[in-house]
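Risk mitigation, structural track. In case the binding assays with fe (ii) ion fail to produce interpretable data, a predicted complex structure has been prepared as a fallback.
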Amino acid sequence: MGTRQVNISSNSAESLKHIAAGPISIFGEDPTILSEIYKDNVNMSVWCRDLNHEILQAANHVIDKDPQLRTSIKVSPKNAIRLIEQKIDNAKITAPLVYDIFHLVKKFCELFKVNDTNLKLTVLHESMCPRFHVDMLPCRLITTYKGKATEWLQHDCIDRSKLGIGNQGKPDDESGLFKSVNDVKRLAKGDVAIMKGENWIDNEGRGLVHRSPYIDNENSRLLVSLDFASSKPEII
Ligand SMILES: [Fe+2]
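Fallback model:
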């Protein structure tokens, strides 16, 4: 597993070299970093953060109470708290998690100037999408509250002809999709990532390549994703 790669945009020659080579992923400790996803040369923006004890405790509680939780709901900043509370064990202990998700819904709607979003709240006991792939979406916000987080590959490390049927039935680490296992990066628990897919305007062949991490039954995950509720907003 490779170490985390942090590329902060700048006008340096190094930065311009990345632009010429292909889209980059960009990380920062302030939530405003997420808006960098609007840049043509960025295919993932990540707000790096540590989850506090109360949120971690709430995530454990939600998994313990409903190990099969898989919910998909259309929410707006106005109704998100109420609708999320209806889907999980609505105990005092879960409030920090509910409010954290509400803040993500609010940020997502503000960033893309939309009124609502499709929220998926999922407990996983096995890999959901174990093969590297790109999403056929404009973009998706994703965060992991418990367990290993999403794995991804830098654009410049990939032979995209090996995605999908191009792998000729071989596993990703044998297909030639990437050269070294050290090329495989993993987000951290708590990181909030917006990943560009292939359907973002003019992003064909540049969507972020990613996969679910390997997990076994003893290492469950709690995952939240946000997608556009209807067609993509006009601004992208
Ligand atoms: Fe995906």
